[in-house]
Amino acid sequence: MSGPGMEIIGAEEKQEILDVLDAGYLFRYGSDDNPKFKAKVFNLEKVVAERVGVPYAVAVNSGTSALLTALGGLGVGPGDEVICTGYTFVASIASIIWARAVPILAEVDRTLNLDPEDVRRKITPRTKAIMVVHMLGNPARMDELKAIADEHKIFLIEDCAQAFGGSYKGRMLGSIGDVGTFSLNSNKMITAGEGGMVVTKDEPLYIRCFGIHDGGHSPLRKGLEVGKRPFVGVDYRMSELQAAVLLAQFRKLDAILSHLRANKKRFKAAIADLPGLEFREITDEQGECATLLTVFFPTEHVARQVANELDSKVIADSGWHVYSNMEHVLEKRTVTAEGCPFACPLYKGPEPKYWKGMLPQTDALLARAMNISIGVSDVGLGSGFGVTMRDGFDVVDERAETFRRAALKYL
Ligand SMILES: Cc1ncc(COP(=O)(O)O)c(C=O)c1O
Question: Does the beta carbon of 164 lie inside 6 Å of ligand 1?
Fold first, then answer.
């Protein structure tokens, strides 16, 4: 399991780490007149905010804590519903549960991201937010989803964990909704093994998010602020070592994006004429991260045969990113016996229920879909077959030929 950034860890990351280690100061806060303090976290927040095109970023220790910070920042909590896709990593859904709100699962469409029509159907007076996931680096239908959020005066959270560097119609992912979150774990575009980021254009929201990630303190505190903290926060802080690696990785982002996009274009062109084969709908070819190439076969049967031939899996069988494989969500297994938020007296909706088959459109699409790795190889995504970040056109051509031969046996 690895993403493109991890494939190309090298001298630049080592140099950044040594910069911190040689100075011997690992904490994210320090004073400007301390030569040991390298302000890596601070600088990372600055460059990420600039890149995303928003004034504020808060670095955290994972994509999950970024989501928890965003939800808390928006005041999502007991009694609220958050609409989320059934095709995502469990962290999206888990963060809603840990915020003590009720996740309402909605269908994906041919983008494999939230289907705006189903989102519209699932809005209730209790809906506080839509959590859109730009799954596998492909921007969701943001025009439609933003319009729904605006119309109903609810929040739009962008889970950009899998889409760092992506954009939609010229706007960077993470900057379109009220708040955006990123994961920087080893499977993502850039990485320090673990890490996350929250971005927003809203100053009061930034202040709240900062406080949540750091014991209730205000942004970029100097020292402790006993007596002034507005609420109880936790510790999701990033360390200087993580930020050092991420600064080096960040400088590689454009090279990663153009390499992946070129490889994906070539792979796609090489298999485009296969009879009956269709591609996942990409909302913005220029803006997608191009980490995976997703294909739809005409039937589930054909899809399974081809995937099997290539030692891969259809997405429906690929494991932890599909709601129907999340037994702990389906069975509402919470950490305490009371079963909050599902059994919360503050929740006034009908008892939430989740079951295999509850999202038939999603199930049907994922059963005949297969992921081909372009830069993210992860069995959890069903992308065991394909190329990696280190591969060039020669390997792309060879794998595309292998795919053609396998597909033609069954198409
Ligand atoms: C869509 C999505 N959301 C959230 C997360 C959580 O990120 P992390 O693993 O850094 O906590 C991931 C990570 O895989 C993800 O893919």
Answer: no
